[in-house]
Specification:
By secondary structure, this protein is α/β, with parallel strands linked by helices. The chain folds into two domains: 75 residues, NAD(P)-binding Rossmann-like Domain (Rossmann fold); 55 residues, no CATH class. A four-stranded parallel β-sheet has the order 3-2-1-4, with helices on both faces. The chain has a two-stranded antiparallel ribbon with strand order 5-6. β5 and β6 form a beta hairpin.
């Protein structure tokens, strides 16, 4: 995919996911304005990327950076908010997504990946996706079996069902 001619602002670009996204956008041809509290990382070339060292919770600073980027490039196509602070009180959770194509269209699948780091989660993604797809297929087959074994009762617009007394010969006039 190419991003040539597109402009992006990436918060949290001083490291982690924000840095990875900023580098990927630059590699794909986008013009990037990066914002973070941390100093400019070596991965972000000064000639290719405008880097602003600010706290993204400072509304006025963010407004100024967005305004400068808009004036410099004439428009903004993407804003990626990847700024954040690790919360040691909460466990890190890695979630993968895939989809299964069915005759009715795509069925989205989300699944947790048991991992201690992003690199480990990336490594385990394939196996976790395969397991989630297999589980989804089993659930779809079970739903199909349940549907096939369900009773179909015609509505009143269809044929009239005989009442139990009709079946016993009572309630119908004799000819």
């Amino acid at each position: 995919m190419t991003f040539h001619g597109h402009n992006a602002i990436v918060t949290g670009a001083g490291g982690g996911m924000g840095l990875r996204i900023a580098v990927d956008l630059l590699t794909a041809g986008a013009t990037v304005t990066a914002i973070d509290l941390k100093p400019r990382p070596a991965d972000l070339d000064e000639a290719a990327c405008t880097y602003e060292q600010h706290d993204v919770t400072d509304y006025d600073a963010v407004q100024a950076v967005v305004g400068q980027a808009h004036r410099r490039h004439g428009r903004l196509d993407y804003i990626v908010n990847a700024a954040g602070v690790p919360d040691a009180a909460r466990p890190v959770l890695f979630v993968g997504q895939a989809q299964v194509m069915t005759p009715m269209g795509a069925v989205p699948i989300s699944f947790e990946i048991e991992a201690a780091s992003l690199d480990a989660a990336i490594e385990k993604f394939g196996a976790a996706a395969e397991q989630a797809v297999q589980q989804t297929m089993q659930e779809l087959q079970e739903m199909r079996r349940e549907q096939a074994s369900s009773l179909v009762i015609p509505d009143a617009a269809g044929a009239r069902l005989p009442s139990p007394s009709d079946l016993l010969g009572r309630g119908r006039p004799r000819r």
